[in-house]
Amino acid sequence: MDDRYTELVLDGKEYELLRARRGLLSRWSIPQKVRGCSYLMFAASAALPLMYFLPPAVRETYLGLDPANARVGFTILTVLSVACLIVASLGLIATAVYRDRLDDITEEQAWSLVGLEGMFSGIGFITGLLGVTATLLLSGVGHAGIDTVDTLVATGINPYHSGPEVSLTVLTASFVAFCCAITVFVLGSVAESLE
């Protein structure tokens, strides 16, 4: 048995033992996971500079003169990814607050806490990460040149098509992602004070 596990057993820290052995991304503390979610939201806000600095031929052909105010379909994906990351962050913080309010954690409570932390970690670092990655790939594909975008459009994939009526401008989606990233980063610092 690893010395770290032995130490946790001897100290009677059943929750920490279960978390270390069974938790998703258990090497990271809850505040580190919350800050990780904020970093992903900061990355999602990079769609604006990626779109703004597209080559002129791509901008003129697919977006017009003002790419920041273009309504493209992937902005909904950006906002949904940010929503997943917010849910994950708030869920992780709520789990940490609940854990800190318990004096003695039973085995059943420990399993529930580890399960909740794993669920919220999965929402953030699987669903949120995939959405942010797709957003950045779609917004940056034009940097490969007009020929690449033309080839994608010819095969039926138009990364810069105008989205459904509920789509947002690139500026709005990036602004939402950036503001939420700052808020979640601060919440991560608050959560760290609970540790």
Uncertain segments are none
Rg, Å, rounded = 21 Å
β-strand percent reads under 5%
Question: What's the story with the biggest beta sheet?
Answer: none
Strand elements, count: 0
The tally of helices reads 9
Specify the overall morphology: elongated
- Residues in helix, %: over 70%
Structural class: mainly alpha
Mean pLDDT, all residues: 87
Span from first to last CA? 26 Å
Number of domains: 1
Order of helices and strands: HHHHHHHHH
What does this structure look like?
The chain has 195 residues and is mainly alpha-helical. It has one domain. The protein contains nine helices and no strands.
List keywords for this structure.
single chain, 195 residues, mainly alpha, elongated
Offer a quick outline of the entry.
This protein is mainly α and 195 residues long. The protein has helices at residues 3-10, 14-22, 30-44, 47-52, 56-63, 74-101, 107-140, 146-154, 170-194.
